[in-house]
Amino acid sequence: MMTMTCMECVEKLQPFLDRELSNGERVEVERHLAVCGHCADSFRFEAGILHVVGRCGRTTFASEEFKARIRVVVQTAIADPK
Ligand SMILES: [Zn+2]
Question: Is 33 helix (H, G, I), strand (E, B) or coil?
Fold first, then answer.
């Protein structure tokens, strides 16, 4: 079974962390994170931010801007693998 692409995974990180995904989607994200270091890094980064933000209660916290930033990080990582 194909895992999702990195872009699909990044799009789903936030709803994943917000527990807004279906069980099937969540499994797909977890499967991708298990095999993709780039997205796993993004996930840890985003989870860390949400952990901090979560202390102040639920907030949108510039989510579009934030997603755009993550997208750039992932695209850069894909274009220039270490
Ligand atoms: Zn990925």
Answer: helix
CATH architecture label of 6-79: Orthogonal Bundle (1.10)
Rounded to the nearest angstrom, the distance between the alpha carbon of 5 and the centre of ligand 1 is: 6
Distance 32 CA to ligand 1 centre (A): 6
Domain boundaries, the chain: 6-79
Q: How far is the CA of 11 from the centre of ligand 1 (A)?
A: 11
**Cα distance between residue 50 and residue 17, in whole Å:** 8
How does pLDDT run across 58-71, given as a tens digit for each residue? 555 556 777 777 77
pTM (2 decimals)? 0.60
